[in-house]
């Protein structure tokens, strides 16, 4: 009963029929665009390893936000470059810190743009780790209080969603409790639930000045060969009160996105990280790949794997291409 009765090619004959039977579609409405904010005025400094990505100051950030809104991108995630670093990353929870200033500026001018803040210490600590360091160890429990203070400070500034990216145990519960007690029970938490100790974060660490000064992040971020453990991490974060769970990076972990999608009934986000972006950009600049087709194929794959939300540096380009009808 197979060929010649069945001919799958019948449904590929022209673009109209291909569109009709297409199983996965990309929408700008599912994109989150990462933004790097630094102190100062009039700043728009290119990040060398990520062509098209810049450091903005709170004023130029508004011009970028206007472009995002025009493109129909509903959300941004903010990363800060502080004025100073210390052992406990205190600018991270300073109400006058760079993220707090940026959130206030964005919410004042673009109340409908969803502002997500990355909650972490590594950009703010002198040692570059995502937690309190003592005797060369990254301490878990003393870090929780700091993370809760950061999240609360972001909430007070007007953040719409907080996104802890540190991978300390128990941080979602600590943040949830602090938010609830301070009158923010409605504020969602998007947890970086399955975040791997990946080499694909290289360009980001350059962009955010957040590379660890000693050692690496393997005692808190996940070991790349593990998949069952990712499900356990996600389950724990959901139990602690996470509203959205994230898998990161995306491309080398599409199987994890799929498994999380199948196992849980919450929204799943995937972070198409800096190294994944840089590889595409580098090859495109060399003329070795067709950037538009490659990017749309990659983002479609992340969606097809099961992600509802895609955090990507390609968001502006992709939104433009979608508007132009390239998919
Ligand atoms: C902070 C953080 C990192 C990224 C997002 N939040 C870096 C890291 O864990 O070292 C990486 C994002 C990217 O590579 O695009 N903890």
Describe the structure.
This protein is of the alpha/beta class. It has a single domain, classed as TIM Barrel (Alpha-Beta Barrel), CATH 3.20.20.70. 38% of the residues lie in helices and 17% in strands. The chain is built from eleven helices and twelve strands. The strands form two sheets. Strands 1, 2, 3, 4, 5, 8, 9, 10, 11 and 12 form a ten-stranded mixed sheet that branches. Strands 6-7 form a two-stranded antiparallel ribbon. Helix 3 runs parallel beside helix 4 and helix 8 runs parallel beside helix 10 (291-305). Ligand PBG binds at residues 118, 120, 122, 130, 165, 201, 204-205, 210, 273-274.
Please state the overall shape, judged from the principal axes of the Cα atoms. Answer: globular
Overall pLDDT score: 97
E-strand count:
12
How would you name the CATH homologous superfamily? Aldolase class I
What structural class do you assign from the helix and strand content? alpha/beta
Count of structural domains = 1
Integer-rounded radius of gyration:
20 Å
Low-pLDDT segments, ≥5 res: none
Cofactors and ligands present? ligand PBG
CATH-defined topology = TIM Barrel
The helical percent reads: 25-40%
Topology pattern, helix = H, strand = E: HEEEHEHEEEHEHEHHEHEHHEH
What characterizes the major β-sheet? 10 strands, mixed
Cα distance, first to last residue? 34 Å
């Amino acid at each position: 009963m197979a060929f010649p009765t069945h001919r799958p090619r019948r449904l590929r004959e022209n673009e109209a029929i291909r569109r009709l039977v297409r199983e996965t579609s990309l929408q700008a409405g599912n994109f989150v665009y990462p933004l790097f904010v630094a102190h100062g005025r009039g700043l728009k400094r290119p990040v060398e390893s990520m062509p098209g990505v810049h450091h903005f100051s709170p004023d130029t950030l508004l011009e970028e936000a206007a472009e995002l809104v025009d493109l129909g991108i509903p959300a941004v995630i903010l990363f800060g470059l502080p004025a100073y670093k210390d052992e406990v990353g205190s600018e991270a929870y300073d109400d006058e810190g760079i993220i707090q200033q940026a959130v206030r500026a964005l919410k004042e001018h673009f109340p409908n743009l969803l502002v997500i803040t990355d909650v972490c210490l590594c950009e703010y600590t002198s040692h570059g780790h995502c937690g309190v360091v003592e005797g060369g160890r990254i301490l878990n429990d003393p870090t929780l209080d700091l993370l809760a203070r950061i999240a609360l400070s972001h909430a007070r500034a007007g953040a719409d969603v907080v996104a802890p990216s540190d991978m300390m145990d128990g941080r979602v519960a600590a943040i949830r409790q602090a938010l609830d007690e301070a009158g923010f029970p409605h504020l969602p938490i998007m947890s970086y639930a399955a975040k791997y100790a990946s080499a694909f974060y290289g360009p980001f660490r350059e962009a955010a000045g957040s590379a660890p000064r000693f050692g690496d992040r393997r005692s808190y971020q996940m070991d790349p060969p593990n998949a069952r453990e990712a499900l356990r991490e996600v389950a724990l974060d959901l139990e602690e009160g996470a509203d959205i769970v994230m898998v990161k990076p995306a491309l080398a972990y599409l199987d994890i996105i799929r498994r999380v999608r199948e196992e849980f009934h919450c929204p799943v986000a995937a972070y198409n990280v800096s190294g994944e972006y840089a590889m595409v950009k580098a090859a495109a600049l060399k003329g070795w790949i067709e950037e538009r087709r490659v990017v749309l194929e990659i983002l479609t794959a992340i969606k097809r794997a099961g992600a509802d939300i895609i955090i990507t540096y390609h968001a502006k380009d992709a939104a433009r291409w979608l508007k132009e009808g390239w998919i």
